[in-house]
């Protein structure tokens, strides 16, 4: 019943308090528009810097930007599979799992816990920025811009799979892919913005064939 309601966009919104401290609790809730407000300026500045400060040729910019978006999909898969669903069962990882991602599985329609809190995403973004700068040198800005752009797409596709039912075939497939992860096989279908890496790493849920 829960799966059917979810697929039809009829599940009611739910939430749960995580911390008694009101300040800590406040930081666990994020309005869905927050990543857009924070990271669109980051993307625009990075694009501007690519041309105005580092004189990156347009073809190289396009190649790096596109490569970074593909790289994000891989990071998305790895983080979701091995960080948000840790394969080990010790008590610390169970605690980390619940507070970082388990709460989302228990309350998938909590709109304020669908996007990553800035206190987590901002340090991660800074870490990736310095990683890309050390790897790409003066051409790091296009890669960083594409990576952040792909992250935003992921965030809002994730939000959409929970709260929208667009009548587009690829979105219906993506929504069903994520629905299976939530309600049928949490150990499969780790991709959110795409299912590509689930096919590559053999974690794509296989539909049972109906007997004729």
Element order, helices and strands?
Answer: HHHHHHHHH
Tell me the structural class.
mainly alpha
Instruction: Give the low-pLDDT segments.
Output: 1-12
Multimer state: single chain
Q: What is the first-to-last residue Cα distance?
A: 25 Å
Question: What profile does the largest beta sheet have?
Answer: none
Q: Which value, in Å, is the CA radius of gyration?
A: 19 Å
Instruction: Output mean pLDDT.
Output: 83
- Give the % helix: 55-70%
Can you describe what's shown?
The protein is mainly alpha-helical and 212 residues long. The protein has a domain at 33-168. The protein contains 9 helices and no strands. Helix 7 packs across helix 8 (169-183). It is globular. Mean pLDDT is 83; it is low at 1-12.
List the helices and strands and how they pair.
Layout: H1 2-8, H2 22-27, H3 34-52, H4 58-83, H5 91-106, H6 118-136, H7 140-163, H8 169-183, H9 196-200
Give a short synopsis of this structure.
The protein is mainly α. It contains nine helices and no strands.
Properties at a glance:
globular; 0% strand; 212 residues; mainly alpha
């Amino acid at each position: 019943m829960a799966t059917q309601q979810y697929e039809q966009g009829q599940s009611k919104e739910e939430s749960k308090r995580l911390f008694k401290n009101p300040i800590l609790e406040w930081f666990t809730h994020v309005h869905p528009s927050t990543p857009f407000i924070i990271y669109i300026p980051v993307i625009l500045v990075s694009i501007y810097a690519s041309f105005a400060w580092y004189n990156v040729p347009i073809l190289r910019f396009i190649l790096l930007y596109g490569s970074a978006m593909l790289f994000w999909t891989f990071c998305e898969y790895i983080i979701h599979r091995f960080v948000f669903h840790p394969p080990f069962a010790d008590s610390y990882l169970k605690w980390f799992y619940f507070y970082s991602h388990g709460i989302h599985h228990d309350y998938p329609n909590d709109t304020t816990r669908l996007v990553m809190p800035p206190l987590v995403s901002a340090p991660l973004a800074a870490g990736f920025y310095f990683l890309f700068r050390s790897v790409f040198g003066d051409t790091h800005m296009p890669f960083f811009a594409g990576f952040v752009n792909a992250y935003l797409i992921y965030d809002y596709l994730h939000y959409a799979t929970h709260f929208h039912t667009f009548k587009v075939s690829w979105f219906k497939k993506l929504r069903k892919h994520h629905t299976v992860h939530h309600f049928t096989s949490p150990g499969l279908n780790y991709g959110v913005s795409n299912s590509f890496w689930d096919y590559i790493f053999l974690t794509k849920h296989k539909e049972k064939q109906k007997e004729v």
